[in-house]
Specification:
It is a single chain. The chain has 6 helices and 17 strands. The chain has a single domain, classed as Alpha carbonic anhydrase (Carbonic Anhydrase II). It is 13% helix and 28% strand. It has 302 residues and is an alpha+beta fold. The radius of gyration is 18 Å and the shape is globular. The strands form 3 sheets. Strands 4, 5, 6, 7, 8, 9, 11, 12, 13, 14, 15, 16 and 17 form a 13-stranded mixed beta sheet that branches. Strands 1-2 form a two-stranded antiparallel ribbon.
């Protein structure tokens, strides 16, 4: 049994005049996510992050990087294991334009569990926290990582926190704190898509064009649906960082080389979003970083 609050989204993000009923723990998570985002301070993508300071400048295990098969260590890696990824999440969900991306905090499942992952080279059990996107423009590719020197139209990040840490803020202080799944999207000209979960998110993007606006998603949605039909048994994995300030070197990355084809008309909705300056929120990707001799591992499909 969950306690519910009848709440105005105005209290969450400051602009949408609509009342919704959501679980108190989900509201708390949304408010905390907003606070974490604000703690990074003001930043933009005018120079693709090259002007960011602190660890973003001085760190040696930074992300994103170019993932090159020939330079990777192809070793026997355990499969990545997914838990409760196929279980329906509590709804409504809230998607927000935070000025840097379209972000959605992930709630518990309807059974009160939190989807999680382990296996691979992950140093523990990691619970899903949120999902967000990086994209280009009508004329540029927007993925953060490159795969064999190729960048794609969109990169989706599903962010997880190590279960041993209480908060995202605490997790970012430890090299085993976070795990992020990176999924590439390729824009295709087909009109319709069978990717039900992604469609539910992208169909709401016209409602969050303005900075700090938000929209709700109802119906049935699972975290697994966000992965579409990609092959999850083959992937790159390496130790890196967040790709936004403060670029904390706390992330075990898993990036799938299998690319998800998604309608260009859906991806184009991202290009209409606005940042905190009311400027087009496009090209919100960080430039490729040096590997600095780090090992990148590759798991082949077995």
């Amino acid at each position: 049994m969950f306690s519910f609050s009848f709440l105005c989204l105005l209290a969450i993000c400051g602009c949408t005049f609509a009342y919704i009923e959501i679980p108190q723990d989900y509201l708390d998570a949304i408010i905390q996510d907003k606070a974490d985002e604000s703690s990074a301070g003001e930043y933009n993508y005018d120079e693709q992050g090259d002007d960011w300071t602190g660890t973003c400048q001085t760190g040696t295990n930074q992300s994103p990087i170019d993932l090159i098969f020939e330079d990777s260590k192809v070793v026997a890696i355990p499969r990545l294991r997914f838990y409760n990824y196929d279980q329906a999440l509590q709804t409504p969900l809230v998607i927000t334009n935070n000025g840097h991306t379209a972000n959605m905090v992930i709630p518990l499942t309807r059974a009160g569990q939190r989807p999680s992952i382990n296996g691979s080279l992950l140093p523990g059990d990691f619970e899903v926290q949120s999902v967000h996107f990086h994209w280009g423009s009508p004329h540029t590719k927007g993925s953060e990582h490159a795969i064999n020197y190729q960048r794609y139209d969109v990169e989706m990040h599903i962010v997880h926190k190590n279960r041993i840490y209480d908060t995202m803020g605490e997790a970012t202080l430890h090299p085993d704190g976070l795990a992020v799944l990176g999924v590439m999207f390729r824009a295709v000209d087909r009109v319709t898509s069978q990717h039900y979960g992604l469609n539910k998110i992208f169909n709401q993007l016209p409602r969050i064009v303005e900075y700090n606006s938000n929209a709700t998603i109802t119906g049935t949605l699972t975290v697994g649906q966000l992965l579409g039909n990609i092959v999850t048994g083959e992937f790159f994995t390496y130790n890196g960082s967040l790709t936004t300030p403060d670029c904390a070197e706390a992330v075990t990355w898993t990036v799938f080389p299998d690319v998800l084809d998604y309608p260009r008309r859906q991806i184009a909705k991202l290009w209409n979003l606005r940042d905190s300056r009311r400027m087009p929120l496009v090209d919100n990707y960080r430039s490729i970083q040096d590997t600095n001799g780090r090992d990148v591992y590759y798991r082949v499909l077995q």
